[in-house]
Specification:
The structure is a homodimer.
Chain A lengths: L5 E6 L3 E7 L2 H11 L6 E3 L2 H10 L4 E4 L2 H12 L3 E4 L6 H12 L16 E7 L5 E6 L13 H5 L1 E7 L6 H16 L3 E5 L3 H6 L1 H10 L3 E5 H7 L5 H8 L5 E5 L5 E5 L2 E5 L12 H14 L4 H15 L15 H6 L1
Parallel strand pairs in A: 1-5, 1-8, 2-6, 3-7, 8-9, 9-10, 10-11
Antiparallel strand pairs in A: 2-4, 6-7, 11-12, 12-13
Helix pairs in contact in A: 3-11, 9-10, 11-12
Chain lengths: ~325, ~325
């Protein structure tokens, strides 16, 4: 087996984020009418997307999508690699592909020529900085096994997958194919659980994945508790220990915990002014995985993740506004 | 003559901004190759827009356009009114129209069905917060006299026009028609000079406009010096005095000066961390004109403009991230 050419390939739903400020009352009203749950992601169809957009405040458009954000952050640290995700052949798709390439990320997934437009995520940011996401998947659901480039996966140290892919059958098959290819090549598979409701929807599948197919797991406290239907974080943490090589669990202002074998490494949170939490988990994974692919110790990996997450919650949008490579020295000194 | 229904109608090139960070070296290199001048706006064609975009870093998309930004800020203060500007019937055009309506601004200009896409402004933001703008006008140039709604103009206290409209013959005719309609109705015409290079291109026209057709003039120091081909700001300020009812001249960290008859009112700048100067002049005009339409004294008008400009330079993008109505109390207490 030759040395991998790439540090990482990330696979996910390619979505353009539309971020707008929102009052607490608006979310409460939407919860009552449409079951919108603050701080989580829900899937919506195109009709509902048009309707909700019409009610939203003026927005900012930025490339998003969980694994896409992680790949962009990973590249900002200096990691090299590729992204697999499907946009349409339209203006928002062009924006998405531009932003990936501008970060130095290979993104050669064939855009969808006919059918749904590029998917988008309508993100409502409340005054406390929390984001509530409403995703119209659009073209992103057309990602299929045909888009999974075996050579690319085979040549990357890590294949990173988002749990959201499990929401559609075709993308789920693509996910499974990619994980298989990565392991066949002797490389690692990383997974983010994405969202507690996503975990609810796919608990049995995700438990099986974590135990048998995933090497590095990312989750936040709510997601890992949901996965094991645990009462407390401590319970859930004990349950995940040993199930995969590494589990990195983020706990907002309580920092994060890295579980590797019987080792529990606690990483403190950094002081931060929270403007918009969109992308916090994604950028934690970016920092962690960058450190990991460069052979750094787990504590430094976790610190890199924390620094990246702290940067991204300080401004609107899910991707870096600074070069994350500048954080490396800071993490190594910590 | 009945009381005007609207506070203001703004007319300009409807553009979506694509904001990206840029190094000083990139601008210097572009200056050498393509004559890009830091801190100014230059017009580019579609081919060049595609080429430049490919070289830019990952971006943020937001509705922009000088007069559009002013109208959005004006509405954020609580002013009511309309915007006239042309987008195409495409995704970016949809974004633009959404953002106007979301601010409570009437924007009924018929989108261009066939031909150029929605115009965009590629904005390069250097580490010092300065923005260098490259505008592909796209559909916005198709604005013509047919789009100038006589009833709307006739029913607004102020018709606000951007100098950039003079860059295309058809838009210039639309500009002239709107100014005539406003005066025929006994209402005021406001103009922003837009950019020193724009002033260079249309000096004779602008001198005539200021002397004979404009009631309220907005310019920054460079623009007013360029207009009168003066040596110093003081010279230019003396030359503009009395040419129109009010001239409001912004001077960055030196604050602004309001010239009304033989009165010179100096408004100090506010302390600010500069992230991105895009929209500073536009939001100064928004604050000033909001105060003016509400019958506030000129010093308070200038302070409102300063507070809005200070807000907008503290973040990426040319439009408010807060409700400007919250600034009114602060200005009145100043």
């Amino acid at each position: 087996m030759s040395d991998p050419t790439y540090d990482m390939v990330a696979i996910g739903n390619a979505l353009v984020d539309v971020l707008a400020h929102s009052s607490e009352e608006f979310i409460a009203d939407q919860d009552e009418k449409n079951g919108m749950k603050k701080g989580t992601m829900c899937l919506i169809d195109e009709t509902r997307a048009v309707e909700l957009y019409a009610e939203m405040e003026a927005g900012i458009e930025m490339s998003g999508g969980s694994a896409g954000n992680t790949m962009a952050g990973f590249a900002s640290f200096g990691g090299n690699g590729a992204y697999i995700g499907k946009v349409a052949d339209d203006q928002l798709g062009e924006v998405y592909r531009h932003d990936m390439k501008a970060q130095g990320v290979i993104h050669d997934t064939t855009p969808l020529a006919v059918g749904a437009p590029t998917g988008r995520c309508l993100v409502l940011v409340t005054p406390d900085g929390q984001r509530t996401m409403n995703t119209f998947l659009g073209a992103s659901v057309e990602l299929g096994t045909v888009d999974i480039d075996a050579d690319l996966i085979g040549s990357a140290k890590i294949t990173y997958l988002e749990g959201y892919l499990y929401d559609r059958e075709q993308a789920k098959e693509a996910f499974k194919k990619a994980a298989q290819l990565a392991h066949d090549a002797g490389h690692r598979v990383a997974l983010t659980l994405s969202d507690p409701f996503c975990v609810d929807r796919h608990r049995a599948d995700f438990l099986d994945l974590v135990e048998h197919h995933v090497d590095i797991l990312f989750a936040n406290e709510d997601e890992i508790i949901s996965l094991y239907e645990a009462e407390t974080f401590e319970q859930a943490a004990k349950l995940v220990a040993g199930k995969c090589e590494i589990a990195a669990i983020t706990r907002s202002e309580k920092g994060s915990v890295i579980i590797s074998g019987d080792e529990f490494i606690e990483i403190p949170a950094q002081q931060a002014e929270v403007v918009d939490t969109t992308g916090a988990g994604d950028q934690y994974a970016a920092g962690f995985l960058y450190g990991f692919t460069q052979g750094m110790d787990l504590r430094t990996c976790g610190t890199l993740g924390t620094l990246a997450a702290t940067e991204v919650i300080g401004h609107m949008g899910p991707r870096p506004e600074i070069k994350y490579a500048d954080l490396i020295e800071k993490a190594q000194a910590a």
